[in-house]
Specification:
Two copies of one chain form a homodimer. Helix content of chain A is about 40%, strand content about 20%. By secondary structure, the first copy, chain A, is α/β, with parallel strands linked by helices. Chain A has two domains: about 220 residues, Isopropylmalate Dehydrogenase, CATH 3.40.718.10; about 140 residues, Isopropylmalate Dehydrogenase (3-Layer(aba) Sandwich), CATH 3.40.718.10. In chain A, the strands form two sheets. Chain A has a ten-stranded mixed sheet with strand order 2-1-3-12-11-4-5-10-8-9, sandwiched between helices. A two-stranded antiparallel sheet of chain A has the order 6-7. In chain A, strand 8, helix 7 and strand 9 form a beta-alpha-beta unit. The longest helix of chain A has 18 residues. Chain A starts with a strand and ends with a helix. At the A-B interface, strand 6, strand 7, helix 7, helix 8 and helix 9 of A face strand 6, strand 7, helix 7, helix 8 and helix 9 of B. The complex binds 3-isopropylmalic acid (2 copies). Chains A, B: It comes from Rhodofomes roseus.
Chain lengths: ~375, ~375
């Protein structure tokens, strides 16, 4: 039996609720599979870690994450920990991303089930068939460039951040995008988003994306959209962006959240943040093998419904599926989970019981969704 | 008779087509009004200026704009002038903004007529009642901070831009937002958008917005939304942002374009870019009086339909209305134009002729829309 170590970071707010259900799903996979074993261990992270230890990312948590085969996270933050205070839960998240070198954030955005079209804010004719994988560069740009706070010498009334990119940083994220595009048959189109008509960092971005793909993946289709235009297209005709969208950190933050409302509920969508710099040689291999992977639902800690047991666990369960696929190389278990989720959402062959959480107009509890997915599985 | 000098910059692509109709409307106002006279003069700007003079913003054009009471623009750019070439049409636009100090970009986003709801990509129930005025800071942030291109010493494989703001820059744009909010009865709510959980420039932004409003406009309602969250809300429930949205340059670029697709056609929306730093004293006056004002539709130069005579001139005609309101203080003429546009869009009392351009599913020519608006006026 092959054994994998999975660190679980429930975090704050609804994090523990939703993570508990994904853990059940992983335990079922572990218990029923003849060839693998998953060893799950919980660690403190985020606001709850600040309360317990004074810092959002305790050294022991970071260490465990470094040693693990994969990490499953809930969500961090909440009104209890103010944006203005010195120690904030997000610092833990940014520290973990940087500490593990998680430079590739992957966010699929599609309809897990067509039965969800009615929950989309977009007209069904506009939203239907949206199938975008957003690849966001996660440890560069304005998030990690040199910064100056208000009040510091020499110009106390000025503050700045630096949007900075180097050629290798853009090369490696381009290769991840290319590999994900190649995982599909036929390969997906790549849409690169930048603001090259204004920003120097975007001109570097565009040049490196073009050259990397031309040299290493000449078979892939590539186009470029300015970020302002992309934010329109994402609403007006999202299918035009079907395929792989690749962009820098801050644009990716904005566009991936914009995209995430299309499928009707934030509660449904998973994400993966991966480390491991593919060399040109790796890039030619059919699979992208991350050295570290952090998996989390895209929604926040939703303090308003925390502890009520009504949060939608599906985004976290689908994140666990991505964990199996990308970090553990267990695609068949990932697919099994995705199929079970779809079945529950389609609500077919399972007795017509309206099995949906409040975000999808239902009244099911978090645990009931978990129960049903485990049962179908 | 009071006389005003208005500089007209038709620009590229469909710019000349749509500007011609707005000019007709302004000429009707000038000819029929007993108390004012508008002197219109055309100048070269954008790609056509590059072709004619080698630069997108000739000195004579900048000079005329500085001396004018207001500027009406079409649109600039097109595939003919490459993003990678040294001289680009957008540089003219950025140069004009900076040269005139046009720091406040104002973009109303609403349904000129409820009959347009069916053109929105959003469900009618989501889109209806959207009524947002976006105030974008236009000459600060990453657009004008220090930048380094790829290939330059000392680190030739790195490029960066600097998102930089000073206290006075944020104060003055906050005051514009406040004055626009106060122009409505009851005053509008102010939604400030930033990324204060990550960026130092956003922490400065938030602090200055809070303090300026607390000190000078304590009666106004203010809330804060992170830019990623705002980009979701704009799609999922845009009415939550009804009122005044105020944000920095790059976020404003992205969010205003995102918002602009809600009303169904980009061809309908006007914008104003204003200069003139209101002091605290000005700020208490009921009206914001810009020293310079540039008015343009929000759409681009649409090279695919340029010269076909089918572009929608309404965004430009509504821009002319804003010109009358903000720069010339002629609110009653602005209202008359806005009413005429609404009537044509509502298609009432004008014979049932389907008076719409192709972007709204009709087959009317640019000039026919102009004819009808002039007639109704
Ligand atoms: C919490 C915050 C720092 C984070 C980000 O901006 O990256 C979040 O918005 C996300 O997208 O994961
Ligand atoms: C053309 C470009 C430089 C410009 C900008 O980014 O400001 C445009 O997108 C706009 O919003 O007016």
């Amino acid at each position: 039996k092959k054994s994998f170590r999975v660190v679980v970071l429930p975090g704050d707010g609804i994090g523990p609720d939703v993570v508990a259900q994904a853990v059940r799903v992983l335990e079922v996979v572990s218990a029923t599979s003849p060839d693998i074993e998953l060893k799950l261990e919980e660690h403190l992270f985020g606001g709850c870690a600040i309360d317990a230890t004074g810092v959002p990312l305790p050294e022991s948590t970071l260490q465990a994450c470094k040693e693990a085969d994969a990490i499953l996270m809930g969500s961090v933050g909440g009104p209890k920990w103010d944006v203005n205070s010195k120690v904030r839960p997000e610092q833990g998240l940014l520290g973990l991303r940087k500490g593990l070198g998680l430079y590739a954030n992957i966010r699929p955005c599609n309809f897990a089930s067509d039965s969800l079209l009615s929950y989309s804010p977009l007209k069904a004719s506009v939203a239907q068939g949206t199938d975008i994988i957003i690849i966001r560069e996660l440890i560069g740009g304005a998030y990690f460039g040199e910064r100056k706070e208000l009040g510091q010498a020499e110009q106390p009334d000025v503050a700045y951040d630096t949007m900075i990119y180097s050629i290798p940083e853009v090369q490696r994220i381009t290769r991840v995008a290319a590999q994900i595009a190649l995982n599909a048959d036929p390969p997906l189109a790549i849409h690169s988003i930048d603001k090259a008509n204004v920003l120097a960092s975007s001109r570097l971005w565009r040049k490196v994306v073009v050259e990397t793909l031309q040299n290493e993946y000449p078979q892939l289709k590539l186009d470029h959209t300015l970020v302002d235009s992309a934010s329109m297209v994402m609403v007006a005709s999202p299918r035009k962006l079907n395929g792989v969208v690749v962009t820098e950190n801050l644009f990716g933050d904005i566009l991936s959240d914009e995209a995430s409302v299309i499928p009707g509920s934030l509660g449904l969508l998973p994400s993966a943040s991966l480390a491991g710099a593919p060399s040109v040689a790796d890039a030619l291999s059919p699979e992208f093998k991350p050295t570290h992977g952090l998996y989390e639902p895209i929604h926040g800690s939703a303090p308003d419904i925390a502890g009520k047991g009504i949060a939608n666990p599906i985004g976290t369960i689908l994140s666990a599926a991505l964990l199996l696929r990308y970090s553990l190389g267990l695609d068949k278990y990932a697919q099994a989970i995705e199929k079970a989720v779809q079945k529950v959402l389609d609500n077919q062959d399972i007795g017509g019981f309206e099995l949906r959480t409040a975000d999808l107009g239902g009244s099911a509890k978090t645990t009931e969704i978990g129960d049903k997915i485990v049962e179908v599985l």
